[in-house]
Write a structure and sequence with these properties.
single chain; alpha+beta; four-stranded antiparallel sheet; two-stranded antiparallel sheet; 2 helices; about 40% helix; about 30% strand
Length: about 90
């Protein structure tokens, strides 16, 4: 989980600051009304999310998806380069 940034009392994260796998996953979860834009003195920050929404997503959605994925991978067989199944 990354640290939030604060601008004029708004705690947020930029989606582009996340690792690529998290960027892709959070974009699938987000709705249009959850993303925000923040106009600073220097630039318009697009594709931002309030930190509270990001924290909720990481704790309640992403962590469960990652746990389920790991559990699934550990229960499946993997084909080695000779075409033989190896149980993990």
């Amino acid at each position: 989980m990354i640290q939030g940034k604060v601008y004029k009392g708004i705690e947020y994260i930029k989606i582009s600051d996340l690792p690529l796998n998290e960027q892709l996953a959070i974009r699938e979860w987000l709705t249009l009304d959850t993303t925000i834009k923040i106009q600073t003195e220097k630039e318009l920050l697009t594709e931002c999310v309030q930190y509270k929404d990001y924290k909720h997503w990481i704790e309640n959605v992403y962590s469960k998806e990652t746990t389920n994925e790991t559990s699934f991978k550990s229960k499946t067989s993997v084909m080695n380069r000779f075409g033989l199944a190896i149980d993990n």
